[in-house]
């Protein structure tokens, strides 16, 4: 079976079915979520067993005429991560977005499901797309599915946040599209593999590279282009925040990786990589400090996303550039991608936990959460575990990722990149502790729960947080999977 | 002192040593078992104790986990692991009785087991990642033990403890990473051996000494210790001072270069060590609270150990030969200091008329720490004689033994004054806390003899010769004389607040805050706080600007142009 195609087609089919089903769309989740997860697992197995990139030319037309879907180790892993986070979020949302009794407005419950499926399909299309225009379409779909999720609850402030998000994402898309047009004009193809051979270091490629990079950074909300992220991620319903913060921003980051490492390796210079990492450093420090200052839990978590995204961009200079394989490249590559994956689990767990707290207490002011640990022990524990990964403490995916990135920085003589990573860990300890300390204290008057939260729902963020921790204890297999289909075969460098 | 005993290999037992506390923790999550967990704390460290008693060797390796986990037990590790596990068990039994019926018992048990898993794990970890994991677990989970009573005093102590612990962790992480990069291996022995060849070896050694020194309480990184150890409930104080600070000792032993140490580091460590040893006594004799006196004595003793390791580096070029004596010294301290902390709780529950036996037993331990002949303390002093040598370091060590005797007599006096305050003059302490205390006290005398005569390979004749007895005895006599002199002039000593430097830091912060009126900065032990607060406020202001639409649009443009320029320039 062409699992590559199924991975994209199945969620979209779910979206199409969900629209006419209306009030009953939530029942569809029981079919789409498990089958989508199964397809993703099968895709990973296929890539792992085959040991090479799985490609599928739609309709049998080979590029440059036709459209290709490609799955190498990196994309297969991201597809699996997406499936796991989406399934957990979907299960979580079943209690929230179930059609209510007649009098409550049903719009949110009806719309959530098609939007979630569309988001899933768009994410998979972005991870598996083989040419730059397809990826543009996937990015647009992603934006169009993500924006309504932000304002699903229909509060005025979430509309403002959604509008901000939409406008900035569209600006980013325009920049990206202009870059695509420039590349097509210059080389007559948009297929990533073909472009890699054709593109030379010349003005058209420079301009395209700069425009597309800026556009993708705007969508990733890298400092200083983050204006839309905190209000959007903090204002959305918990289930939406989880996928937005955990997955959606990673898609544009992934595209940037593809662009730099696979499509335009001849153009990507070390100086530009340094610029990316400098912005990432600023994001780490700036986002962490602001997360420390927030009074509302969800905003603090959103600013922490901004900071954690910064780490990903340190990968660019640390790999030593796409063209020159260095002995340490593998460490940086593995570390960067592992950070993206473990952050996806940790951050979605955090947002779901924050959502449960908000739901149970009725507010998410950090100062008013004293003693919540006794009322919602599982939820607070999940928050703490996810925090472990953000701080980069063992055993967690975040620790291994940070270890790989920092040892790479030392081994390649670029020690200065180690400084923001360690400082970011300290600051993360600060903002996680700021929440956990009052939560675990025996407050004089423990917070009163507006309504009890069933253990079943509390278990979902816990499972996601455990996944982010288990990534740190996992056998080294996934790191080898990451290398399936990489042009530069650097197998060494773990540790 | 090299072990010649053949070692049976049992990787499972090594893994169980760390796994049982964690398994009990998980079991405690079940609602019905949670309440009973407090009564089972004594059993958690038994596999570790068994591993150490059987002198189990071999390595338990789990290649795929956490970058490749490896557990191993060598003679140095076993020397520390056994006594520390014994103390955990005794203090666990004590905690079961001490906290019964008090609030938050389950939370205490959870943090206890987590801390214990880390505290035992540091002696077994053979690779950097496992060591870091165990160390971080012991450090961070202990926060829950320090803050347990949630009094303002405990909260302040715990906050300062946590800030310093997290800073220490970061120092260590960077140090480990430099070592791992130099060795291209994750095994601790490779990393320690390769460190002298690293281009950043001085930075890495500084980070490691700072990180481990902070844990062990070396001056000036000791400030958290006299605050945190007395603030915790008594059984937690015992393991904090007896067991957990030994993570710093094993860290120094494992990570200081085994040979070819760069010059200068040995002497620096000797200076820091003896500085800490005498500073601890000087600050300790001004204290009123017996637990605080003990805490200052702990850092003083850790100073002696640092000096022993430093002499190893300075004279033999590596920590190798000094490792086992230092571990032995630390093992005795673990049991003796743990038992003395437990004694504070026993004395508080004892009526005035029954206090004498408690004081007598405690006196043997206390003066033993100063080297009272025939006690474990005398053996510990005997063991470190060789690495310290006969020169100035040896003399300083004897003087520090005299100073310790003085401090311990001060402790006994404070204990006698503070104890016996139980309601009824003939109140008897509950057996639940007396038996574990007596066990720990007996172990503090007997276990060092056991190690000395078996694994240590020492003979009775050596330990009981008149020369050795005099060697151990004169500092005790001198210290007793000093104590008499001190009591004669009692009341004239300046009083040093608990946590000395941190209080000065806090005072300075407050003074600064008063000097410039409108400031709402939280009280933290850093005078740079005010600047930081202003920087943060400036950042927040900047965030407002950045998030305005015109700035955001401009930023997008600037980013695009910047990348264009860089790509053009990079051609």
From TrEMBL, chain A:
Alphabetical list of InterPro entries matching this protein: CPA3_Na-H_Antiporter_A, NADH_UbQ_OxRdtase, ND/Mrp_TM
Q: Name one GO cellular component term.
A: endomembrane system
Localisation: Endomembrane system; Membrane
Membrane topology of this protein:
Multi-pass membrane protein
Cross-referenced Pfam families, in alphabetical order? Answer: Proton_antipo_M (PF00361)
In terms of domain of life, where is this protein from?
A: Bacteria
Which protein are we looking at?
NADH dehydrogenase
Q: Which UniProt keywords apply?
A: Membrane, Transmembrane, Transmembrane helix
A biological process term (GO) from this entry? ATP synthesis coupled electron transport
Per the record's keyword annotation, is Membrane included, yes or no?
yes
Major place of localization? membrane
Tell me, what is one Gene Ontology molecular-function annotation carried by this entry?
NADH dehydrogenase (ubiquinone) activity
Q: Where are the transmembrane segments?
A: 28-47, 77-97, 109-127, 133-150, 162-184, 204-229, 241-261, 273-292, 299-320, 340-362, 374-394, 414-433, 459-477
Q: Where is the NADH:quinone oxidoreductase/Mrp antiporter transmembrane domain?
A: 130-420
TrEMBL record, chain B:
- Quote the cellular component terms of the Gene Ontology held in the record: plasma membrane
Transmembrane region(s): 12-30, 37-56, 76-96, 108-125, 131-148, 160-183, 203-225, 237-257, 263-281, 293-314, 326-348, 355-380, 392-412, 433-452, 552-570
Q: Does the keyword Oxidoreductase apply?
A: yes
Q: What subcellular locations does the record give? A: Cell membrane; Membrane
Domain called NADH:quinone oxidoreductase/Mrp antiporter transmembrane: residue spans: 125-384
Q: What's a Pfam family in this record?
A: Proton_antipo_M
Query: Which PANTHER family does UniProt cross-reference here?
Result: FORMATE HYDROGENLYASE SUBUNIT 3-RELATED (PTHR42682:SF3), HYDROGENASE-4 COMPONENT F (PTHR42682)
Q: What is the name of this protein?
A: NADH:quinone oxidoreductase/Mrp antiporter transmembrane domain-containing protein
Which source organism? Caldovatus sediminis
The major lineage groups are: Bacteria, Pseudomonadati, Pseudomonadota, Alphaproteobacteria, Acetobacterales
């Amino acid at each position: 079976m062409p699992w590559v195609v199924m991975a994209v087609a199945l969620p979209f089919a779910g979206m199409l079915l969900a629209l006419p089903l209306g009030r009953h769309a939530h029942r569809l989740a029981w079919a789409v979520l498990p089958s989508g997860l199964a397809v993703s697992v099968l895709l990973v197995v296929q890539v792992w067993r085959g040991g090479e990139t799985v490609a599928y030319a739609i309709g049998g037309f080979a590029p440059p005429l036709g459209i290709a879907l490609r799955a190498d180790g990196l994309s297969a892993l991201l597809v699996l991560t997406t499936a796991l986070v989406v399934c957990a979020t979907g299960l979580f949302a079943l209690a929230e977005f179930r059609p209510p009794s007649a009098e409550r407005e049903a719009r949110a419950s009806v719309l959530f499901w098609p939007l979630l499926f569309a988001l899933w399909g768009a994410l998979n299309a972005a991870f598996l797309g083989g040419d730059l225009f397809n990826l543009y379409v996937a990015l647009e779909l992603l934006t169009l599915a993500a924006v309504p999720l932000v304002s699903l609850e229909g509060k005025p402030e979430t509309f403002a946040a959604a509008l901000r998000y939409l406008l900035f994402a569209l600006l980013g898309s325009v920049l990206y599209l202009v870059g695509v047009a420039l590349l097509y004009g210059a080389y007559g193809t948009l297929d990533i593999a073909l472009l890699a051979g054709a593109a030379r270091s010349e003005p058209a490629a420079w301009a395209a590279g700069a425009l597309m990079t800026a556009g993708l950074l705007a969508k990733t909300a890298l400092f200083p282009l983050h204006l839309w992220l905190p209000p959007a991620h903090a204002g959305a319903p918990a289930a939406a925040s989880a996928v937005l913060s955990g997955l959606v921003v990673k898609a544009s980051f992934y595209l940037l990786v593809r662009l730099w490492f696979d499509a335009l390796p001849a153009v990507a210079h070390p100086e530009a990589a340094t610029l990316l990492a400098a912005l990432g450093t600023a994001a780490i420090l700036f986002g962490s400090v602001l997360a420390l200052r927030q009074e509302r839990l969800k905003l603090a978590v959103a600013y922490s996303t901004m900071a954690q995204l910064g780490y990903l961009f340190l990968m660019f200079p640390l790999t030593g550039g796409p063209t020159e394989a260095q002995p340490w490249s593998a460490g940086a590559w593995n570390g960067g991608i592992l950070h993206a994956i473990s952050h996806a689990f940790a951050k979605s767990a955090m947002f779901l936990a924050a959502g449960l707290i908000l739901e149970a207490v009725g507010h998410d002011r950090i100062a008013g959460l004293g003693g919540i640990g006794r009322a919602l022990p599982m939820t607070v524990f999940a928050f703490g575990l996810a925090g472990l990964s953000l701080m980069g403490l063992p055993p967690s995916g975040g620790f291994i990722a940070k270890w790989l990135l920092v040892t790479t920085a030392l081994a390649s003589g670029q020690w200065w990149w180690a400084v923001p990573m360690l400082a970011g860990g300290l600051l993360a300890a600060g903002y996680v502790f700021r929440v956990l300390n009052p939560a675990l204290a025996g407050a004089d008057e423990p917070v009163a729960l507006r309504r009890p939260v069933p253990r079943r729902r509390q278990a979902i963020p816990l499972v996601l947080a455990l996944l982010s921790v288990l990534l740190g204890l996992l056998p080294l297999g996934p790191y080898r999977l990451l290398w399936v289909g990489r042009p530069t075969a650097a197998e060494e460098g773990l540790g | 002192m090299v072990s010649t005993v053949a070692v049976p290999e049992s990787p499972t037992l090594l893994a169980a040593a760390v796994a049982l506390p964690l398994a009990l923790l998980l079991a405690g999550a079940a609602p019905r078992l949670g309440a009973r967990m407090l009564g089972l704390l004594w059993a958690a460290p038994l596999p570790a104790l068994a591993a150490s008693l059987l002198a189990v060797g071999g390595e338990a390796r789990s290649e795929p986990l956490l970058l490749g986990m490896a557990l191993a037990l060598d003679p140095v590790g076993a020397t520390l692991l056994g006594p520390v596990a014994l103390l955990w068990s005794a203090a666990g039994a004590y905690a079961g009785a001490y906290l019964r019926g008090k609030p938050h018992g389950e939370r205490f048990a959870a943090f206890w087991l987590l801390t214990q898993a880390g505290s035992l794990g540091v002696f077994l970890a053979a690779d950097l990642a496992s060591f870091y994991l165990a160390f971080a677990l012991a450090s961070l989970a202990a926060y829950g033990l320090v803050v347990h009573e949630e009094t303002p005093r405990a909260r302040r102590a715990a906050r300062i403890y946590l800030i310093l612990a997290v800073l220490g962790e970061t120092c260590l992480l960077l140090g480990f990473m430099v070592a791992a990069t130099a060795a291209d291996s994750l095994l601790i022995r490779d990393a320690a051996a390769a460190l002298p060849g690293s281009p950043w070896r001085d930075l890495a050694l500084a980070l490691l000494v700072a990180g481990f020194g902070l844990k062990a309480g070396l001056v000036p990184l000791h400030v958290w210790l006299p605050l945190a150890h007395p603030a915790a409930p008594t059984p937690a104080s015992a393991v904090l001072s007896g067991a957990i600070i030994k993570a710093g000792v094993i860290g120094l032993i494992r990570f200081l270069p085994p040979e070819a140490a760069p010059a200068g580091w040995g002497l620096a460590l000797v200076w820091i060590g003896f500085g800490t040893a005498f500073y601890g006594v000087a600050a300790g004799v001004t204290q009123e609270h017996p637990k605080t006196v003990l805490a200052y004595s702990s850092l003083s003793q850790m100073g002696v150990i640092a000096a022993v390791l430093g002499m190893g580096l300075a004279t033999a070029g590596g920590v190798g030969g000094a490792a086992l004596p230092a571990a032995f010294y630390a093992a005795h301290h673990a049991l003796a200091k743990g038992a003395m902390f437990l004694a504070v709780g026993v004395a508080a529950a004892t009526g005035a008329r029954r206090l004498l036996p408690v004081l007598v037993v405690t006196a043997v331990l206390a003066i033993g720490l100063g080297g009272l002949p025939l006690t474990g303390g005398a053996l510990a002093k005997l063991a470190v004689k060789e690495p310290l040598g006969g020169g100035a370091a040896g003399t300083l060590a004897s003087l520090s033994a005299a100073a310790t005797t003085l401090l311990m007599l001060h402790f006994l006096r404070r204990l006698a004054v503070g104890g016996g305050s139980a309601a009824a003059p003939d109140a008897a302490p509950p057996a639940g806390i007396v038996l574990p205390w007596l066990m720990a006290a007996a172990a503090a005398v007997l276990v060092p003899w056991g190690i000395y005569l078996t694994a240590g390979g020492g003979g009775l004749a050596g330990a009981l010769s008149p020369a050795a007895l005099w060697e151990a005895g004169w500092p005790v006599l001198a210290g007793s004389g000093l104590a008499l002199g001190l009591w004669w002039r009692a009341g004239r000593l300046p009083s040093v607040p608990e946590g000395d430097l941190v209080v000065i830091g806090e005072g300075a912060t407050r003074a600064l805050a008063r000097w410039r009126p409108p400031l709402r900065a939280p009280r933290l032990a850093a005078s740079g706080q005010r600047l930081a607060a202003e920087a943060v406020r400036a950042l927040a202001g900047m965030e407002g600007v950045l998030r305005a639409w015109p700035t955001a649009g401009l930023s997008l443009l600037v980013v695009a142009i910047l990348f264009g320029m860089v790509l053009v320039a990079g051609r």
